[in-house]
Amino acid sequence: MSPHFPSMAEPGGRTLGDEEVAAAERVIRSGMLSAVWGTEARALEREMAELYGRRHAIACSSGTAALHLAVVAAAPDPGDEIITTPITDFGTVAPILAQNAVPVFADVDPETGNLDPAAVARLIGPRTRAIMAVHLFGAPAPVDELRALADEHGLVLLEDCAQAWLTELPPLPPRPATPLAAVPRPAAPLAAAPPGDAGVRLAGTAGAVGCFSLQQWKHVTCGDGGLVITDDDALARTMRLFSDKGWDRAAGRSHASFGLNYRMTELQAAVARAQLAKLPGVVEARRRTAVRLLEELGGLDGVRLPRPEGHAWWLFPLVLPGGGAREMAAALAGEGIPARAGYLEQPLNRAPVWSGPVYGTSRFPLDGADAGRGPTAACPEAERLVADTLLVIDWNENYTDAHVTAVADAIRKYRPRP
């Protein structure tokens, strides 16, 4: 019989403990639960900015709110398009619609489920404003190729890192040496480098804005919460204003621009700070057991294993090129393995939401969307992954070698068809 697999819905599957209890008590005893006048949210922002080597971090109420702030920073006009992936949570797409922009779904790499840059390139048009890359399951998306596309066409690259805490990007190729006399002096101190080996680049730092989630099921949690990071002073101001009803508090009761209330509370921030301190250990533990499973399954016919480089292992994905993911997921679940097929019921380009109104009885901004590039355009690789070839296994920092062995034994037992 398989061991019990701890879930992120129970204490044994989380790292919540005395530190978080003390943090919550500290806030409650202070009497100040609002981040407007408190200190915890500002401290969380400083710690996040330092961890990622960015000039700015802004805390907000959810991962979806973080993505909304990023879309606001991209500043689409009504009817503009933002290209993203159909294999993601709807929280990636809802902010696009909320800003009256049109989501355009590009197809994905059939091995990773991440955006295919060639598919993105084919969809760039005169109304394209931004590209939203998602680092699916914690695997690094090809953001350098996407950044090159964005730069070539004058677009904004945004990164959804909700599942990708401390995901590492490939190192950039070395640049030609520059004569010392030609190197400009920085106008301000350089931001601190990310933790770990020298030169490590983290997901969320390749684009204009990186977005993170602190929802219950993520690597670290405060129940719900979000963070955005950026090096751009103007974008940071835009996002901070939008998260606080456009209120420029330095100017008194003055609203500088349109915005919503996406403020994080002090309770959320205090718990998030305690969790953030545990994040490196969480990711390291997930990586250790994931690599062990990769070793156990090496050479198994009919299974395409994920690439471990940079992976943060929110989930452990397997691709079965011959299909049959739903049958295999059911067999693994019968053995007590937390496995499921497809990740989504259907990719977002096939979701029922597109058949109904968006605002009131209106379908704006979708009414004028080009059928060949709008939200319901075909994405055959994504559709096959979700329907037949993608299998995901819940992963957790508290898994042991016994959990790895149980998963490996079950997969070998129910060897997929080649």
TrEMBL record:
The keyword ATP-binding does not apply. The keyword Transferase applies. It comes from the Bacteria. Pfam families: DegT_DnrJ_EryC1 (PF01041). Its cofactor is pyridoxal 5'-phosphate. GO terms for biological process: polysaccharide biosynthetic process. InterPro entries: DegT/StrS_aminotransferase (IPR000653), PyrdxlP-dep_Trfase (IPR015424), PyrdxlP-dep_Trfase_major (IPR015421), PyrdxlP-dep_Trfase_small (IPR015422). CDD domains: AHBA_syn. Signal peptide: none annotated. GO terms for molecular function: pyridoxal phosphate binding; transaminase activity. The active site is at residue 218. Keywords: Aminotransferase, Pyridoxal phosphate, Transferase. The modification N6-(pyridoxal phosphate)lysine is found at residue 218. Belongs to the DegT/DnrJ/EryC1 family. This is DegT/DnrJ/EryC1/StrS family aminotransferase. It comes from Bailinhaonella thermotolerans.
